[in-house]
Amino acid sequence: MQRKVDQDSYQPSYLQLVDIIQEQISSGKLRPGDRLPTESQLCAFHNLSPMTVHKAISLLIKSGTIVTKRGKGIFVKPMQFWDASFKLGKLQYLLSEKADTEVKLVTLQITRADSIVCSKLKIKTNENVLFMHRLILAEGKAFLSHFEYLLYDPKSPIIESAMEAISLKDLFEWKGNQHFKKNVLSIRAVNLKDEEALLLNAPANTAAFCIEHLFFDYNDKPVSWGWFVCPGDRMHFSNVISMGNGELKNENK
Description:
Layout: H1 13-26, H2 39-46, H3 50-62, E1 66-69, E2 73-76, H4 89-95, E3 101-112, H5 115-121, E4 128-138, E5 141-151, H6 157-164, H7 168-173, E6 182-191, H8 194-199, E7 207-216, E8 222-231, E9 239-242, E10 249-252
Antiparallel strand pairs: 1-2, 3-4, 4-5, 5-8, 6-7, 7-8, 9-10
């Protein structure tokens, strides 16, 4: 027997209705793609006002649980491949206190920006930039490499903070982050160059992940461009898309 909204409950009626519909979805009574009763039918069945039902439906739409189709009704949102999202779970673990990681500074030098660096940082050719190459060690073994170019200003706290990063957690959470407004990330597949492969104890030309980052300051000016390189067998991305308790969920592992 279908549960009805309890008019004597302390829980608001619209939240009860949200819970009821989510329970029907998670139990399989309502499947992805199934049509829900109309708002007027829900009003009649649960003895609720149109405003209360509309508020519940709006919450379910906002959470991505259901969708409306003009002229057709309200439907449970189908699970779709492009709903998947991934987190850098392996890096998150390496940031934790449980992980035995350290950052080794391989190269630190002031250099002239080439055309690629200039295009990324929006600067003129041959302007000075600070180049840093770090090697991230996990349990004493090379796990990934990090390359970074920063706008060179000896007085900048960003430069000072970047040079002080001695752990992976420092690298991701160093004090310079307070000067950044946003970070643009992209991931692509690459093959390890000979030098990278040697440092990471991997065969040359090994398939790898390249995680590129571009930091912007509060004037929307790029101030740091860099990338992490990690052999493909050391980092995995997986995701389970499920309806959970009635809401479409992404479970990253």
